[in-house]
Amino acid sequence: MKYNFDKLTNRRGVHSLKWDCAEGELPMWVADMDFETAPCIMEAVNARAQRGIFGYTVVGEEWYSSICNWWSRRHSWNIQKEWLIFCTGIVPAITSMVKRLSEVGDDVVLLTPVYDIFFHSVENTGRHVLESPLVYSNGVYSIDFADLAQKLSRPNASLMILCNPHNPVGRIWSADELKKIGDLCIENGVTVISDEIHCDITTPGVSYVPFASLGQKYAQNCAVCLSATKAFNIAGLQCAAVAVPNARLRAKVERGLNSDEVAEPNCFAAIATAAAFNGGEDWLNELNAYIAANRQEAATYISRNIPSLKLVRGEACYLLWIDCSAVTNDAQNLADHIRKSTGLWITAGNQYRGNGARFLRLNAACPRQRLKDGLERLKEGVQTFCK
Q1: pLDDT band at residue 353 using 50, 70 and 90 as cut-offs
Q2: Can you tell me the distance from the alpha carbon of 42 to that of 281, in angstroms, rounded to the nearest whole number?
Q3: Helix-helix angle 145-152:175-187, to 10 degrees
Q4: CA-CA distance, 248 to 175, in Å (whole number)?
Q5: 3-state secondary structure the chain
Q6: How much is the pTM?
Q7: Domain range summary for the chain, segments of one domain joined by +
């Protein structure tokens, strides 16, 4: 490989959210990677830093063109420049859109288990989460379309937040599945917010389908959240975009993002995004191959050494979704025990609702040596929990 993903970079002492933990603990919870970002991004940021002045900044043309070119080339979706709105992150964008595209007391439909911050974005703004639980069978998740249709037809349902690909279960929704979702939403007057932040972390040879690429009628009923932050490990630079093809919908979204003061870049945000999409493709391809090998390493280790756990097959994300139902139906108790007894810090699935209380989430985006350490601690923690 051209890039060294085995490098054990020390992340302590820099106020890292992930690594601000006790000495001897191994954090494999929050969704950022333990890999240094692509060299082209570091070069762009360093070059900007050398100017020595960090004043107010605007979004340059290269930000727009890099996003449009990337999605056209890599995902066969032709984004128009005027659809794009800069924002400081997908979470603040979703919260802002929930406030602008629904009313207090409305129902917002989610396929669960799903990223827990969605619940906060809905409930902290006075709306109600309406869960449509995914079906889990033979190690694979699928959508219960009969249940989804019933939930979307509720009189107060105004929004659906879609996770595409789906965090934490690792599913890439097919075009047929997305069209069924889109048709149900259109039929019931429900607007789709599609969070596609994990779209570039996929198994080599597998690609996701952008929701808005399915056709004009779907594009006109959605706002799509995009970012380089997950794929290129630059979340701390606070850079994301919302693509809204519908002009009237876009005006509401843009007004909300500006009113909430989350539509202005810091001096590194836009240039890092442009550098990633203009020059980071080879790095990303190698990263995806490395993460796929990590996933296989974990699958083999768990199968051989922790047979009471089952790794859910995933096509996207670097987050392993591990079925622990043979050990406990309260993953929080197990995760707490594992951290206390071994120092391994992973996420209990309880917070993702749905059937998440039967699962653990482990971040496998790290050097293989660190992954092996985590798997050994996982084994030890499960064994002592069962005694």
Answers
A1: very high
A2: 15
A3: 30
A4: 26
A5: CCCCCCCCCCCCCCCCCCCCCCCCCEECCCCCCCCCCCHHHHHHHHHHHCCCCCCCCCCCHHHHHHHHHHHHHHHCCCCCHHHEEEECCHHHHHHHHHHHHCCCCCEEEEEECCCCHHHHHHHCCCCEEEEEECEEECCEEECCHHHHHHHHCCCCEEEEEEECCCCCCCCCCCHHHHHHHHHHHHHCCCEEEEECCCCCCECCCCCCCCHHHHCHHHHCCEEEEECCHHHHCCHHHCCEEEECCCHHHHHHHHHHHHHCCCCCCCCCHHHHHHHHHHHCHHHHHHHHHHHHHHHHHHHHHHHHHCCCCEECCCCECCEEEEECCCCCCCHHHHHHHHHHHHCEECEEHHHHCCCHHHEEEEECCCCHHHHHHHHHHHHHHHHHHCC
A6: 0.97
A7: 26-38+281-385, 43-279
- What CATH code would you report for 26-38+281-385? 3.90.1150.10
- What is the topology classification, in CATH, of domain 43-279? Aspartate Aminotransferase; domain 2 (3.40.640)
CB–CB of 272/239 below 8 Å?
yes
Tell me the percentage of the chain whose pLDDT exceeds 90.
Answer: 99
157 contacts 107 by C-beta, under 8 angstroms: yes
Confidence of residue 1 (pLDDT cuts 50, 70, 90): confident
DSSP β-ladder status, 84-87 and 240-243: antiparallel
Chain centre distance of CA 10: 24
* Contact criterion met (CB below 8 Å) for 104 and 126: yes
The tokens for 35 are 């890999």
Question: Is the bond leading into 367 cis (omega within 30 degrees of zero)?
Answer: no
Mean pLDDT (whole number) for 153-180: 98
Q: Strands 26-27 and 347-348, how do they pair?
A: unpaired
The predicted model gives 267-287 an average pLDDT of 98
Q: Which residue in 223, 144, 208 sits closest to 174, CA to CA? A: 208
For residue 143, what are its two tokens? 């959508």
The answer to whether residue 387 scores a pLDDT higher than 90 is no
Residue 386: count of CB within 10 angstroms of its CB: 12
